[in-house]
Amino acid sequence: MTPLLAFDIETVPDVEGLRALNGLEAELADSDVAQMAFQRRRQTTGSDFLPLHLHRVVTISCALRERDSFRVWSLGEPGDGERELIQRFFDGIEKYTPQIVSWNGGGFDFPVLHYRGLIHGVTAARYWDMALSCTRLGQLPERAELHTRRGRALYRRRSTIVEPVFGQLKEVRGVRRFRRRGYTACASEWRLLCATHNLLKLWRSGRGRRLTGPPPPPPRRSR
User: Fold this and answer.
1) Enclosing H/E stretch for 69
2) Whether residue 108 sits in one domain with residue 50
3) How confident is the model at residue 143 (pLDDT cuts 50, 70, 90)?
């Protein structure tokens, strides 16, 4: 069975890169450098989202299913350098040769890893071999599909279908990690979370109240 690797990266502005590109003095605070870059970006594009090569990777969270085992971990400690972090991620791909799953990986995560890996001279021979093989076999249609009218329409639906669920579970209900271990246990916990999420939606929409019938009348007061 081919191992399955799901991952997600977290980034911060590459302050040192912004200094070099804009010729800024070293005395300028990092926060001021970032705010200046955000402001310039808003003036140019209307958004403060920086170009992909100016995102510095600070952590990579992974979930690996291999045979009957399921592991979750994060790469990146406060003292780790970016090169070490990215190299460890690609070393894992070299070791397991997994099927890789991500959310918007083709539009953000992998392009950022490509840019930052080039900056630091990261080696990833197995990863590029996998990407070339998949391209030849026609197994990576996602990027081309997203540029079609249908693909763009489907991609826009994520903000109303997927993201609200994650936001509700993480921010409102405080679910940020599984409490049980093992693939089967985590799958059961996830199904329970989804079921209770749907029940709450039914109740808030009023359908839950209709299913349980009208509330009983208030008791009469005796005179």
Assistant:
1) strand 69-75
2) yes
3) low
Q: With respect to residue 215, please indicate whether it lies within any of the assigned structural domains.
A: no
> What pLDDT sits at residue 76?
87
Split into its structural domains, the chain has a count of: 2
Structural domain boundaries enclosing 192: 160-207
44 exposure class (CB count in 10 Å sphere: 0-12, 13-18, 19+): exposed
- Judge whether 124 and 86 are in contact, CB under 8 Å: no
Calpha distance 8→169 (Å, rounded): 18
Amino acid, single-letter form, for residue 13: P
Strands of the 4-13 sheet, one edge to the other: 69-75, 55-66, 4-13, 99-101
Provide the token pair at 168: 């509700």
What is the maximum span of the chain, computed from C-alpha positions, in angstroms?
87
Q: What is the average pLDDT score of the chain?
A: 85
Enter the pTM of the model. Answer: 0.61
